[in-house]
Amino acid sequence: MNFSGFLHNDDDDKSSGGGNHFSSEAAAMPGGLVKSIFSSPRLSLGLQTNAENNRGEMGRTGESFEVSITRRSPESRSGSDNADAFSGDDDIDASNRPLKKKKRYHRHTPQQIQELESVFKECPHPDEKQRLHLSRRLNLDSRQVKFWFQNRRTQMKTQIERHENSLLRHENDKLRAENMSVREAMTNPMCGHCGGSAVLGEISIEEHHLRIENSRLKYELDRLCALAGRFINRFEDDATGSHQSPNSTLKLGVGSKNGYGGGGGGFNLVPPGYEISSSPFFPGLEAPVNRTGTDVATGLDQKSLYLELALSAMGELVKMAQTSEPLWIPSSKGKQEMLNREEYDKSFTRCLGDKPDGFVSEASKEVGMVTINSLALVETLMDSERWAEMFPCMIARNSTSEIISSGMGGTRNGALHLMQAELQLLSPLVPVRQVTFLRFCKQLAEGVWAVVDVSVDRISDGASSSLSCRRLPSGCLVQDMHNGCSKVTWVDHTEYDESNIHHLYRPLVSSGLGFGSKRWISALQRQCESLTILMSSTLPNRNKTTPISSIGKKSMLKLAQRMTENFCRGVCASSSQKWSRLEVGNIDEDVRIMTRKNVDDPGEPPGILLSAATSVWVPVSPRRLFDFLRDELMRSEWDILSNGGPVQEIACIAKGQDHSNSVSLLRSTAINANQSSMLILQETSIDASGAIVVYAPVDIPAMHSVMNGADSACVALLPSGFAILPDGQGLEETGSLLTVAFQILVNSLPTAKLNVESIETVNNLISCTVQKIRAALRCDNK
């Protein structure tokens, strides 16, 4: 039974005064009578019939109850016990004073309680009309209903408060535990890297650094075990059945014949007893950070595929580079070797799968001596910027997408990069080859290195569906020689879509002279020779007419390098420059005309730029055609910039032992008073794979500043010139493929519109130049 409802003033019941009824009447009675009503600590539901005989005991009981009633939980009683109104048959003592008012207690029936509970759920605060209706229906007094609802609300409120108190106590305990942990950590700090004490005063600085290094090495070891452990069994199986090639001088190897593997049982890439899991074979592998389990698994799986593909490609490259016949057989078109496809298919499993439909294969191998040591060449190949500078006429654009491994021991041994590149052949009739590939570097022996490329378009995310070229294992082996030079064996193996190539260039490309190993080796030899001269204390100057300081020569060479790079990008429409091709009805389909705007590049004049290029076959050898175009005495035969007058070479800087490789400064002399003299900067170079002649008119004051050592980056120029390649038809060089290209400024306002007259002008310029060259070489009748 709960009396808290009688003591509680509920807001919605203040008007009725029912909540104070009992307490007000009780206050009017003597204290002993009030106490005597409650004769049992259990609040008996029956009437006390012998109150007078037990008055003393009841008084004591009442006193104890009066103290404890306020402490008892309201909901500890049923809330279903109610007292009736005072009876009229009260006992009266001898002095006519009422001794005690008897009160009957009623426990509600289960049916009544159920009904009251259901109404309480719908309306915890019934008004007087609802209480009256409910009392009639349940055969209860209106006050009984009122008091029941008061007690029930009090009970609910107490339960909620108790639950909230329990939550607060739990939170308090949690905060206390955290506080104790923080206090304990503050009294004994630990290093998160090495696990030792974080108080440096207790240990030496050297010991602290050693602990950090030890922790890092343990982390790398665990990571390498997870990544490289999957390869151990495969390599151990290969080692048991490997044999050394009779044509090999080094114990190199390939992966097994599997989905990514290279050769069959020829070599062993990993020495016996060498365990990848216990050695930093691939240091620098990036571990996934803050990624979900699925992402981590995906990243590790893809890098594992990259590692396996790189290892297999390395093995295939080494075997192809060191094996001669029957894998490589002499070509009927010259000294160059050609790949024996039947022997290749028996020796290797295609690491990139079957050849796509419509693709053709191109494979070549070339050996040459270069004036650079192996370490310097490896560093150049693994650095994307230096690689592009080494092969400016072959690489239109390149970038390193991801460094999967940076190498070990501060060297490039084990370095693995994911790269992208645009490879070009200087002709508008041959599209740029866009490739995404892995570049893997490995030291095979002391002074012997290998660098291999292999396409990853089939396994990389977002691979293009319009794939037109892919590189099979290609690259070079570099071996130091005693004279400071290196012996380089270059292998190039590619599959490409031949339908995109003009018929004039198909023989050249298929023979490997367009993108193959001969061109890579020739360009490398010429560039290394130029770098050797440039790094010397004095630069040779053949013509003493205009003396140039050493710093002026270097500035002039830097300007010529930028001129040549822009010329190549304009011919091949590289994505590094935003050229837009123009389609004009009256222009020959073999002539490509493009335009772009220059706004803020100080190395070019501002305004609308126009580029035009075409390629033709000329029935003369590449060397004869090159000598004709670079000869300043013959320049008036074809160059409109000479204005028909003589051209004089006033300065020349040699870039190699062959004086044909040089940078020259020419002066065109005016033949009448209405014309002015001008300066022309020209670079010429030739090697076994082809030749270029690039030139551009330059401002006279700006060129004088460059020759005095000023920065050439702000000298504006637009290059034009020629690219000469052999036609690839046979042993005798009876024909050349000549590319003619011009870049001109058609309007100095970038916002101006390009008109048809400008397009026709540049088209006529190309046609007239080609006709003059053919006429000067007497090629019209051939």
Brief overview:
This protein is 35% helix and 21% strand.
What is Rg? 48 Å
Note the main sheet.
9 strands, antiparallel
CATH superfamily of the largest domain: START domain
Number of strands: 23
Family: Belongs to the HD-ZIP homeobox family. Class IV subfamily.
Pfam families: Homeodomain, PDF2_C, START
DNA-binding region: 101-160
Coiled coil: 153-180
Description:
It is found in: Nucleus. Residues 299-533 form the START domain. Belongs to the HD-ZIP homeobox family. Class IV subfamily. By secondary structure, this protein is of the alpha+beta class. It has 3 domains: 4-157, no CATH class; 225-457 and 465-534, START domain (Alpha-D-Glucose-1,6-Bisphosphate, Chain A, domain 4), CATH 3.30.530.20; 550-776, Alpha-D-Glucose-1,6-Bisphosphate, Chain A, domain 4 (2-Layer Sandwich), CATH 3.30.530. 35% of the residues lie in helices and 21% in strands. The protein contains 18 helices and 23 strands. The strands form 5 sheets. The protein has a 9-stranded antiparallel sheet, sandwiched between helices. Strands 7, 8, 9, 10, 11, 12, 13 and 14 form an 8-stranded antiparallel sheet that branches. Strands 1-4 form a two-stranded antiparallel sheet. Helix 6 (128-138) crosses helix 7 (142-187). The termini are far apart. The model is unreliable at 1-79, 83-92, 230-298 and 460-465 (pLDDT under 50).
